[in-house]
From TrEMBL:
Keyword flag Plastid: no
Protein name (database record): IclR family transcriptional regulator
InterPro entries assigned: GAF-like_dom_sf, HTH_MetabolicPath_Reg, Tscrpt_reg_IclR_C, Tscrpt_reg_IclR_N, WH-like_DNA-bd_sf, WH_DNA-bd_sf
Organism: Nonomuraea antimicrobica
Stretches assigned to the IclR-ED domain: 72-250
SMART domains registered for this protein in UniProt: HTH_ICLR
Gene3D superfamilies membership: 3.30.450.40, Winged helix-like DNA-binding domain superfamily/Winged helix DNA-binding domain (1.10.10.10)
Entries under Pfam families matching the protein: HTH_IclR (PF09339), IclR_C (PF01614)
Domain of life: Bacteria
Keywords in alphabetical order: DNA-binding, Transcription, Transcription regulation
The HTH iclR-type domain, residue ranges: 10-71
Amino acid sequence: MAGNTSAPGATVVSRALALLYAFDDRHRRLTLTELARRAGLPVPTAYRLAGELVAGGALVRRADGAYVVGRRLWDVGLLAPVQTGLRRIAAPFLNDIHAVTRATVHLAIRDGAKVLYLERLSGRASVPVVSRVGARLPMHATGVGKALLAHAPYEVQEAVMADLAPLTPYTITRPDRLRAQLEQVRRDGCATTVEEMTLGACSIAVPVRGRDGEAVAAIGVVVPTLKRDRARLLSALQVAAQGVTRSLGG
């Protein structure tokens, strides 16, 4: 929830932003009442501002009256320098991995205590996944998320440890087990998952380094199993990550 934006002194801009921030991965479609509640606004105020956002293309009102995020808002979001520059630089390396593996290939960054997907390539050989471009998913249950979490600040790691929600029967939900995994990620330079986000899907991912050596992004692939081609997949990811790092000036 965006907070008490109905309080005196809240600006029109802050109230409009509260409406936009009311949407997330678990709340992609909101009725007017839900939108007002999550934004902390009176229903009449939410209705008026939502109407202006619909007129501007930031929101879309469906036939049943519910609101969803508009395409125009996503188009503007893609102009953020970290996304456009990184996606452009990483594109040829991601395409190379996809051509070799025909698996789902991800490029992601950390967004607070979540992992934000900037790119996803998939094909006929890909396994079903819940990721999509622009999605923010739990870090503890995804390969790219673990690759980034292992190098995240202490306070971010602790925030994730406090909410290890089970997504499948195989999701790591014990902080001590996850901490041990993150230590292994730092030692091995790669992170893996085994059906922790989606049943039937395993992943392996590596971090992409920036100029100062920090993990600025992660590249990963999702496959049915890691038992056969783990070494080949890891090698392809490492080559790609090194290429992106060099292109970033790292």
